[in-house]
Amino acid sequence: MSKTSKPVATKAEEKILNRRKFLGAGAAVGMSAAASIASSQAATAKEIVWDREVDIIVIGAGASGLPAAIAARDTGAEVMVVDHHFDAGGIAIMSGGDIRIGGGHRLQMAAGIKETPDDVYKRWTDPLRHRFADFDLIRRFADENVATFDFLEANGVNFDRHGTEVPREGRPGLTNTPGVRPHEWPIRTDLLTPDQNRNGSGIVRPLEHSARDKGVEFLLSHTLRTIHREQPFAGRVLGVTVETVDRWFQPQHRFLNLRARKAVIICSGGHGANVHFRRMFDPRLTEEYQHHGHATAPATAASEICAISIGAALWSCGNETDTGTGNAIDKGRLAVRDNYVRGKHGPESAVFFRHRALGLDVRDWQNLILVKETGLRFWNEIDRSQNGYFANALKPTGNPKKLMGGGPLWAIFDSAAVEREKWGTTSPNVDRAGGYFFSGATLEELAGQLTHNIYQKRPMPGDVLRRTVERFNGFVAAGKDEDFNRPSPPHKIEKPPFYAAWATPCLHDSYTGLRTNTNCQVMDMAGKLIPGLYCAGESQGGIKSHGLGRCTVTGRIAGMEAAKSS
Amino acid sequence: MTDNWPVALDIVEPRPSVVDLAAEFSLTLAITTAPEKDLSGARYLVFDGDRKVAEGVLPAIRRHDPNSDDYDPRNGPIDARDQACLKLVSPRQEGEFAWKIVLPAQEVAGALFQEAMVGFSFKTAQHKTSLAVWDVPTPVVSGETISFKVGAKCSAGCDLSGHRIEILDEAAKPIACVELGIEALAEAEGLYWAEVSAAIPANHSLDHSLVRWSVGFAARDLELPHTDASTQFNFMTTPPPQHKVCVTVVETETQTPIADAQVRLGVFRVATDASGSAHLIVPTGRQRLFIWEAEHEIPEQFLDVDRDLEIVVQAKTLPKENPYDRWDG
To answer: Are B188 and A441 within 8 A, CB to CB?
Structure first.
């Protein structure tokens, strides 16, 4: 049997850990600190032996958790943030940094943009796009936009470089939501992925610095296991049990019981990576669909499940299945498992070991065909529409053992396409070892290898793939795609070697979560408040919105309101 | 050295179920014994019934290291047992086999181990051959000779040099035959290949049609049984082209030439050069002009070609995709 060894940080991780030391080890609770055997099995909450006691525990150190922690700390509360990653920032650190808030903040006024909280409310209650939202929550959100902007600036977020340029006016098909974007965080050693920084770092890094400077404690590499309440479905929330996880987020069976005198705030980023949880809202989303945060900040629904187990309700579930605007699913890059199109991590990244490859960006989808696990094309590869491309990508393949979900998608191309796209076919560009990229001298040989991918549950028949390509090549010669009307496909797939690259869509946001009131206090199935439990960001139900505006505003509200709890 | 450590063997999934005749195949053993004991270098024997078919020593035992980048529990439960990969050679006969691997009682690195064994079964099958056809020109003029490349690959990597590939027309009539060369294609391991020349019948009815020919590999005169293989390829035929047409693609606002746009006029296709021009020679007639370039929008049009032509096509730049446009709210 393999022996258990003490976790050793890789060079990339060391950079992060060294930075943390620099920021002040005194503010951090070490992974090895006072780890105790779990008392989560205690018969009653009274029997719990608490390892630590603070006023407020925030679960999640991302775009909602950091504002929540700071807002609570600003009131004088003693605050601890718990996160399962070895670094703060959540998935927001790889975000584009677009914060959809308005209502008449400083930059809007400077740019001569006249907007009021009522305008924000009106936009976010648009009956076409937001019909499943909680309008009471939206009202509070709208009213707190300007204050949140001021709060972010006061805590070091610098918006001046981009001003109000994001988003632009009159974008077709979308609500004209104003927003702001900070500049990228300038300290290279602070970045999760120095070779592809993103503006999200310009939000979470200054907030993390501010939180630490103000005395917020961080307990990283720990995940939530239990929320303790006075009685199973009644009384106050008392605290949590958290468990140490390794760098793969795997449980290490070492537990800490953390008492929260005032409140626990759930800011853990939603549920997109939890197959069973997400399928409550869309049964098609079976295991082959990856979540864009799998490698950085997996949205495991652990917090939601803990909260439900003490009586919390879900809310605005219609938001989650209403995928008509394309928020929840992405066409992705190729040849890498975590293939969110803009979540690219190179070897310098502290989380490259989880990504394993950069992946291939597609310049021109005319350079390939997409096939299902059966070896058959299913749609025009150029398209990315919800009701066309994605609906058909998620359509079952006819496998009697798998009647839900569309199975893996593979991009099939030849060496001429590799040359045109200037793709690299070796590591670190592609993940061959993990089973997300294959090559073969012939199409039959290529098809025969695909079962090395864990989601390719049955062999792709080589003769079917060959006939698919032969037929497609006929469309190229004739100049007409008779099957899916792709516009005059220009390139045959014929020159060996042939390649198959993972091209299965990946999931992005979570649009439903725990029910709260407008103070972000969690409610139960009877509509009663759960004393001492709050929730914000993607774990909270009620707001169908991508990204940072929703997270920062509700995070700040939750932090302020939780601090008032007695 | 009084201890006598028990050993348990298992075979790690996926087990080999069907293997090529007389071909090397891999099998991973899971080995469980006392903690800290290492069976690297231990002697093993492989039996088919009572007949020994192989023997050797275990390679270095592989131990899972949760801190290794190879350890990825997201792909499913990790098998944390010690593992060793064996390379075995399958029988030369087709059939079903039940083998067992035995680690006899032995001393390794100063420790004594008890005997252990594990069985597995598999089938053997003919080697599978498959084909590729590439560099096929299209369109081609009826009556002319074209050349293209064909290659064949054996699933077990057999040398196919000198073996024959036959080209058949749509009526399955042989058109050409070629022997595979002695060198495999450098970019595609084990793909033996040859260049083929074949004449296109001078038949007016072929003009403007999609022609489908097939390629066949008959597995004869090989040391071991192989499956036959066939595949198809296609090309368009055209009457003799007469008129030179130069299509220049420029960006509408800046009039900058656009290189590498795919210009298709009728059945002819060529990419624009650095000056944005594509030079084609096409037959007389009304031809559809379709131009594809991923970052530009270029409306389709029809040209009446009855003389040499030079045309300039305006390409409208598509707005750069704003990554945030997708997101609502």
So the answer is: yes
A496, closest residue in chain B (CA to CA): B188
What residues in B contact A246, CB-CB < 8 Å? Answer: 66
A413 Cα to chain B: minimum distance (Å): 13
Q: Please name the residue of chain B whose CA is at the shortest distance from the CA of residue A415.
A: B187
* Residue A373 C-beta-side C-alpha neighbours within 13 Å: 23
Residues B102-146: pLDDT tens digits?
999 999 999 999 999 999 999 999 999 999 999 999 999 988 999
Render pLDDT for B272-281 as a digit per residue (tens, 0 to 9). Answer: 999 999 999 9
The dihedrals phi and psi of A443, each to the nearest 5 degrees, come to: -65, -35
3-state secondary structure of A5: coil
Across the interface, of B35, B134, B288, the residue whose CB is closest to A495 is B134
Do the chains contact at A443 and B66, CB–CB below 8 Å?
no
Contact between residue A441 and residue A462 where contact means Cβ atoms under 8 Å apart = no
- How far is the alpha carbon of A320 from chain B, nearest alpha carbon, in Å? 13
Residues near A490 by beta carbon (within 8 Å), at least 6 away in sequence: A366, A476, B262, B264, B269, B292
Q: Is the ipTM of this complex over 0.85?
A: yes
Query: Does the distance separating the beta carbons of A246 and B324 come in below 8 Å?
Result: no
The pTM of the full predicted model, rounded to 2 decimals, is 0.91
Tell me the pLDDT tens digit for each residue of B224-279.
Answer: 999 999 999 999 999 899 999 999 999 999 999 999 999 999 999 999 999 999 99
Report CB contact under 8 Å: A497, B232: no
3-class secondary-structure state, position A112: coil
Contact B294 A549 (CB under 8 A): no
A250-255 CB contacts, 8 Å cutoff, 24+ apart: A250/B66, A250/B73, A251/A223, A254/A35, A254/A36, A255/A35, A255/A36, A255/A37, A255/A38, A255/A39, A255/A40, A255/A225
